[in-house]
């Protein structure tokens, strides 16, 4: 179980680090023109940049607390935060009729929930 949680947390960290960096580093107008990023037009540039920064922090929160053994309880907390973000993303993409993208959002939500439940439960760091 511990190995599965590490693998899923690592994959999620890579996904959210990449997605967050894209939101922070790519200009708003260029990001809005990217394939599958039409949702950006529904939100302000400040919100999108803030969301990207939160995703980056969440990505680090999935890995660093456990690796450094400094407040490892932050791992499931970060996973819950990212699950909430993906739940919101699912609603946004579903509302826009982008059901294939919504399915991917549900997958990331499920992965984050798996890490949160596993790290609060049977494979906690305590």
Which secondary structure elements does this structure contain, and how are they paired or packed?
Elements: H1 2-25, H2 28-33, H3 45-68, H4 74-95, H5 99-120
Helix pairs in contact: 1-3, 1-5, 3-4, 4-5
Q: How does this model look, in words?
A:
The radius of gyration is 15 Å and the shape is globular. It has 126 residues and is mostly helical. It has one domain. Helices cover 78% and strands 0% of the residues. It is built from 5 helices and no strands. Keywords: Membrane, Transmembrane, Transmembrane helix. Pfam families: DoxX_2. It comes from Mycetocola zhadangensis. It is found in: Membrane.
Short description:
The chain crosses the membrane at residues 70-90, 102-121. With 126 residues, the protein is mostly helical. It has 5 helices and no strands.
What's the number of domains? 1
Biggest sheet architecture: none
Structural class: mainly alpha
Runs in which pLDDT lies below 50 for 5 or more consecutive residues are none
Mean pLDDT: 94
By DSSP (H or I, 4+ residues per run), the number of helices equals 5
Beta-strand content bin = under 5%
Helix content: over 70%
Q: Any idea what the shape is?
A: globular
Rg estimate, integer Å: 15 Å
Give me the count of strands: 0
Reading the helices and strands in chain order gives HHHHH
Distance between the ends: 15 Å
Transmembrane segments: 70-90, 102-121
Membrane topology: Multi-pass membrane protein
Keywords: Membrane, Transmembrane, Transmembrane helix
Subcellular location: Membrane
